[in-house]
């Protein structure tokens, strides 16, 4: 929700967007969003390759670290080109982060509970997606930097949960 608003006006502008302006974007913003979204499948492909080379947990931690760096740069008032580059990098990393828990969950848990755990995780993911959209809409109007902070906090919390997993599942036999 907030990415097109960042690309359109950014949070450096003092101008307050009306509801109508928030829902209408010019063609350049829509083109930028299309190009940024093309990096999502590339991020998943790179994640699969990296998981086989450096391991599942390390790939996830690397993606979270890169996402945090890319999003931290967005706290500063940058021109549209730099914002585009860092949003693209963020989308790339977010795709890796979104893909990694599904692989880890499928490999970490025994067959008896695997489908339950993955379904439970997907349900929370959907609830979280709805919650995230509502929060980003509300927070962007208060202070756009809060949207970045919320995303970063979510990535750090997910990373902490991953650290609680004791073993690396790359190269191990699945039961």
Averaging pLDDT over every residue, what do you get? 75
How many beta-strand runs?
A: 0
Beta-strand percentage range: under 5%
Structural class: mainly alpha
Could you tell me the radius of gyration in angstroms? 18 Å
Outline the biggest β-sheet. Answer: none
Please mark out the parts with pLDDT under 50 across 5 or more consecutive residues, or reply none. none
Number of helices: 8
**Distance from first to last alpha carbon:** 40 Å
The helix/strand series, from N terminus to C terminus, equals: HHHHHHHH
Describe, in short, the structure shown.
Helix content is 79%, strand content 0%. The chain has eight helices and no strands. Helix 4 crosses helix 5.
Architecture overview:
The chain is an all-alpha fold. The protein is 79% helix and 0% strand. It is built from eight helices and no strands. It has helices at 2-8, 19-23, 27-37, 39-54, 56-73, 80-108, 111-142, 144-163. The longest helix has 32 residues, at 111-142. The chain is globular and about 50 Å long. The chain starts with a helix and ends in a 12-residue tail after the last helix.
């Amino acid at each position: 929700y907030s990415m097109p608003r960042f690309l359109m006006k950014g949070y450096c502008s003092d101008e307050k967007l009306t509801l109508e302006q928030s829902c209408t974007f010019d063609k350049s913003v829509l083109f930028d969003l299309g190009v940024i979204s093309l990096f999502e499948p590339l991020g998943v492909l790179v994640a699969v390759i990296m998981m086989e080379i450096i391991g599942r947990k390390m790939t996830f931690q690397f993606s979270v670290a890169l996402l945090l760096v890319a999003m931290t740069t967005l706290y500063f008032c940058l021109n549209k080109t730099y914002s585009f580059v860092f949003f693209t990098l963020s989308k790339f990393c977010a795709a890796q982060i979104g893909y990694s828990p599904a692989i880890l969950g499928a490999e970490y848990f025994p067959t008896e509970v695997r489908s339950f755990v993955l379904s439970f995780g997907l349900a929370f993911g959907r609830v979280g997606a709805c919650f995230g959209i509502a929060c980003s809409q509300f927070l962007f109007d208060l202070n756009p930097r809060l949207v970045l902070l919320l995303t970063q906090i979510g990535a750090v919390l997910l990373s902490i949960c991953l650290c609680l997993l004791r073993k690396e599942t790359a190269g191990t036999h699945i039961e």
